[in-house]
């Protein structure tokens, strides 16, 4: 089961990052494409200036089928209402979870994207609060140091 650690809200940054056009191929890039077209702010790209955006660390493997891995960071927007198939931070009986939001009739179902984790049907007597909806994913490629 994937749980989460809420790191906190995102602080704005004045830093702009070089943005290369056209997109960089995953193979060997052409030397002719080795120039910066513009600079882009991650704050603007992901809407990080909004106070309802939070950074959350993923713990567990239940969403690996979606490419969300243990140790990843996800951006969560608390202002969005969940729709079917959204990845959400759900607080179920006081436990924060990262799951796929679904419904079967009036019943909420929290799904995983891993065959070892069956769907979790939320019972009427349980306490469920959808804390926010995933809007972005961040992963470290190489640990610093």
TrEMBL record:
One of its GO terms (biological process) is SOS response. The keyword Acyltransferase does not apply. Keywords: Autocatalytic cleavage, DNA damage, DNA repair, Hydrolase, SOS response. CDD domains: S24_LexA-like. It comes from the Bacteria. GO terms for molecular function: DNA binding; hydrolase activity. Residues 22-135 form the Peptidase S24/S26A/S26B/S26C domain. The keyword DNA damage applies. Belongs to the peptidase S24 family. This is Peptidase S24.
């Amino acid at each position: 089961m994937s749980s989460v650690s809420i790191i906190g809200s995102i602080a704005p940054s004045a830093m702009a990052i070089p943005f290369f056009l056209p997109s960089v191929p995953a193979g060997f890039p052409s030397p002719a494409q080795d120039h910066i077209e513009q600079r882009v702010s991650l704050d603007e790209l992901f809407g990080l200036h909004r106070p309802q955006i939070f950074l959350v660390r993923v713990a567990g493997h239940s969403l690996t089928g979606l490419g969300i891995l243990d140790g990843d960071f996800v951006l969560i927007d608390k202002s969005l209402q969940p729709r079917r198939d959204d990845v959400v931070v759900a607080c179920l009986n006081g436990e924060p979870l990262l799951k796929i939001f679904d419904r079967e009739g009036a019943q909420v179902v929290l799904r995983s994207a891993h065959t070892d984790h069956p769907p979790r049907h939320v019972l009427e007597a349980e306490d469920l609060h959808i804390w926010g909806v995933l809007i972005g994913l961040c992963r470290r490629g190489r640990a610093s140091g």
